[in-house]
Specification:
The complex is a heterotetramer, with two copies of chain A and two copies of chain B. Chain A is of the alpha/beta class. Chain A has helices at residues 8-12, 33-41, 56-63, 84-91, 102-113, 128-131, 185-190, 205-210, 245-254, 258-270, 275-281, 284-288, and strands spanning 20-23, 47-54, 67-75, 96-99, 118-121, 137-141, 148-153, 159-167, 173-174, 194-202, 215-217, 224-227. Chain A contains twelve helices and twelve strands. In chain A, strands 1, 2, 3, 4, 8, 9, 10, 11 and 12 form a nine-stranded mixed beta sheet that branches. In chain A, strand 2 (47-54), helix 3 and strand 3 (67-75) form a beta-alpha-beta unit. Chain B is of the alpha/beta class. The two termini of chain B are 24 Å apart. Classes of the chains: A alpha/beta, B alpha/beta.
């Protein structure tokens, strides 16, 4: 097997301004925020960003003016309300949006995973989601029944970034048996062209191969894997730690203005050399362990 | 005569709309009043139905199929979701999407920033889609609910900014422009069936599919309702009072389902 | 929740001659043979049978002249060679076959699960599998790229029969963490109209809800669940027991002629009142436990 | 000069066709000689490649992605498959199908009841499809291998009943009628690249895509080869001898990979 363990800097260096990037996680779970802060440090711009239910990762990128277009089902901050920086950028016209409903986005992800240019749905008749996006949503006739269906174009980002629980140096990433499964990370990984995975911890391959059915991202699909403890902070990694409520509230408060959030980004991303420095800035592992949940592996 | 809160009235009313063996979609997240409407009341109503006339009623919540409603989490942080026991927790959200497309859901609970005369809803953008006055969250599975669920129920506070003649953006196609327009657009049976508000209940006329005042909550007048809407719904000759909760329903809600007033807080 | 625990007799009574039935399992794993023997006792005929990689279940039904048409990717007896009774019936023209390659059959199962009339593939250009089956495999143009694709019609059996590991009385069926995943049972269950599940053992709902992510068949999808220990015998149930080599060899020997296998069916199906009698006929649980594998739950 | 068996010769030859980081599909099951050709030799060759020039080579076997080839099971009963450790074991076989369709596989190992001049293969039926002389197993993923895998390698004993002018049924489209016919039919790059037999190796001519004799195993004559085929393949001016296994390759096979002669038994 090929060793794919590397650093955030090396793993993300191929992502340049103008790239198309799929961001994994859903709501406050497993947002790849450590990777996002590195992209912000790298000063990438004009990204086309795809997501499922995006929260902190998308809002941070929007705050850094890194997004030209977003495509997905949701951007908000879950129980913290709307995403202030994303909202500001869309309302000012800086970010173009292409909204997809869940069955439509699922079709895009599965089409890519199956090597197909599209998959059919029948959800969006009469919805403006279809009306405003003829480039990716088209009505056609079923080759068998003749009924009207909607073809949804495959999601084909150049890069896919997913934050996972644990993996080995070959890129095999496993989930715990009991977890919050409300996401689309595995289909995203299955259809990825260049897949970069960050994990809470690196474990031995011997650990992995004992329970191969828990490997939801096979190393064969992965270009690079990076160990980033608390890599989803200030969001949560289910079964390991909860969202950081104090940090979220501080982020929201400082996001009331563009200047406020620029200062936040300066402190928590641009001014810091790497993720280790971010963890120190957040009080270090000792302080962060207060977020750990019982039954954490 | 029992006294009760508006949330208790709505919870009891909604629970009676749930039939035995119904599969009900309940959303996750948001906070404050939005949480009560989107999560709190639906979970309480589903549990109340289970405890009464619909023991076989089930909920799909997040990606949990049939979570144990006898122990609804008291804190809605991630680990509470992770630990909540359920009959099943499919590998990804695509399974729920497939069940929606296969019309496995009987009821869904929905809220929107805008809802119009024909039950079209908007959670995407206020104003121009390209340069909106207010960018909202997007769409989630709201279009699926109106496209595939048998009896979607809207839970919203009556407000002239929310109840509009025409939504700025059709996230979910309801009854479109009324009549057969929904069918003609390519959609099947479904679309919003009831609109449950803090002042009154509405349904949609069988023929024109226009929103129609169905009942007024105790003490609410027709004029108060109309004052809180930007369009005039169909209004029948006589408007019944919304059936109040029974003492048994109130006891279940207060003692068993939501003793600490978490679900029906605000 | 609704109780769905019943007997093989009751669960299978809706399946009558002429029905279309999907049979779960793959190769020698989890063939629903107890249910198949009940169908044989019920003397159903002219079934249209769909399967993934079918072995004992399909060959037993063929031996009983119960199949009019078969659709799937494979019928054989794995390392025991060709399926003698299925082969005899096809060569004599009694069974019509519709062959699908794996991506084609996967498309049929997923289409049904997604509520779609078809899904696209691009596998079968130039293959006679497509040429002989225009009814279910049709070429069409991609609505976006214009490239030629092949539409594969959804698999829509009236009944689906799957043999699983363990489940509760509400029909929630779980798999063990480590198992042999080389099958399509979950997609079959997801697209089923009327789903009948047999399991090795019934466990409490409290057991099930502790690890909901192990539930691969939610009770919500199930019409009936039946407890049938060694329900896949003489095939295997991975993690519980291996195939019965002696029984397989005896079956093969007696299948050399139609009369031979009729005698076998008389002994092991028609002459027996139920699955309990079959287990006794096979030496009882004591004898069968010799097939158990280590680490059996 | 080292002595070696035909299976050792073939195993060593095939292992040299595997490049570093190749993902190789290996089939499961069958028994006797068919097992040696479909499972035994491919697994031994893949492991031999890993131990030598291709440490990054991986195998997809059954639904096991990268099973540990340093401990190949000695008994191919179900529990041996269940217990075999691997890097991943996806939730269902559909994942492997998707990887095939996305052209993730570099090499596949295939065997057929019939193979023709243009590398079309048949594992479905001998004679008339509707009322066959011999009904075979069907198709499995054999059409996918020829449609999507970069370099499919056929492993078959040379036999006039198997090597036919035209297959009775095209299960897997190889080079169809040669030339550009494969492309014209709608297929992409791929199709059979090599045919490895007990007597000789064949490839396919770049222009006509006809099967072409590539090398003869030591001691085998051209006439013996032609006597075991129902069509005459392209034959070059000079026919090299199939490169024999090195003493190091033989040592790996005999001492490390297959010490009990399970994989290369018959």
């Amino acid at each position: 097997m090929k060793e794919k363990l590397t650093t955030l800097e090396k793993a993300l260096s191929p992502i340049v301004s103008g790239s198309t990037v799929m961001i994994g996680g859903s709501l406050l779970r497993r947002q790849p925020n450590a990777a996002v802060r590195q992209l912000i440090r790298n000063k990438v711009r004009d990204l086309t960003v795809l997501s499922w239910a995006g929260t902190t990762a998308i809002d941070l990128l929007a705050a850094a003016d890194a997004i030209r277009r977003w495509e997905g089902i949701y951007v908000g901050l879950f129980n913290y309300g709307l995403a202030p920086n994303f909202r500001r950028a869309v309302e000012s016209g800086r970010i173009e949006v292409r909204d997809f409903s869940e069955t439509a986005m699922v079709a895009r992800l599965r089409a890519a995973a199956q090597g197909m240019p599209f998959l059919p749905i029948r959800t969006l008749f009469g919805s403006d989601l279809a009306q405003v996006n003829p480039e990716q949503i088209r009505t056609f006739d079923c080759p068998f029944t003749g009924e009207k269906l909607q073809a949804i174009a495959a999601a084909e980002p150049e890069f896919t970034i997913i934050h996972g629980y644990a993996g080995d140096k070959y890129g095999n990433v496993q989930w715990p048996v009991v977890r919050d499964t409300d996401d689309m990370d595995q289909p995203m990984a299955a259809g990825a062209k260049r897949l970069i995975v960050t994990v809470e911890k690196i474990v031995s391959h011997d650990e992995i191969k004992k329970q191969p059915s828990l490997t939801y991202i096979p190393g064969n699909w992965v270009e690079a894997i990076v160990e980033v403890p608390y890599g989803a902070h200030p969001a949560a990694c289910d079964t390991m730690y909860d969202e950081d409520d104090a940090h979220m509230r501080d982020y929201l408060a400082r996001s009331k203005t563009a200047d406020g959030v620029k200062a936040y980004l300066g402190e928590f991303a641009n001014a810091l050399p790497d993720h280790a420095a971010y963890l120190e800035k957040c009080g270090g592992l000792a302080a962060l362990s207060a977020l750990d949940v019982k039954g954490r592996a | 005569m029992a006294t009760y809160t508006n949330n208790e009235l709505i919870t009891a009313y909604v629970s009676r709309q749930i039939r035995d063996d119904d599969l009900c979609f309940v959303g996750v997240g948001t906070n404050g009043r939005a949480f009560t409407l989107a999560v709190g009341i639906p979970l309480a109503a589903a549990r109340l139905a289970q405890m009464g006339h619909a023991p076989g009623a089930a909920v799909y919540w997040g990606n949990l199929l049939e979570p144990d409603l006898s122990v609804i989490p008291e804190h809605f942080t991630q680990d509470a979701f992770t630990q909540w026991q359920a009959a099943a927790c499919p590998p990804d959200t695509g399974v729920k999407c497939d069940m929606l497309a296969r019309r496995k859901f009987d009821v869904s609970f929905n809220s929107a920033a805008q809802l119009d005369r024909y039950g079209n809803m908007n959670i995407t953008a206020i104003g121009d889609y390209r340069k909106p006055k207010v960018r909202l969250v997007g769409s989630l599975a709201q279009p699926e609910h109106f496209a595939f669920v048998r009896r979607p129920i809207l839970l919203m506070d009556l407000d002239a900014r929310s109840f509009v003649e025409k939504v700025d953006f059709i996230t979910s196609a309801g009854h479109l422009s009324g009549g057969n327009s929904r069918r003609e657009a390519g959609l099947g049976e479904g679309g919003p069936s009831l609109v449950v508000t803090d002042k009154a209940i509405f349904d949609f006329a069988e023929d024109t599919r226009e929103m129609r005042l169905k009942s007024l909550h105790r003490g609410v007048t027709k004029d108060e309702v109309l004052a809180a809407m930007s369009f005039v719904p169909l209004i029948p000759e006589t408007i019944p009072e919304t059936e109040p909760p029974t003492t048994e329903e109130l006891a279940f809600i207060r003692n068993d389902i939501d003793p600490h007033r978490i679900l029906l807080k605000v």
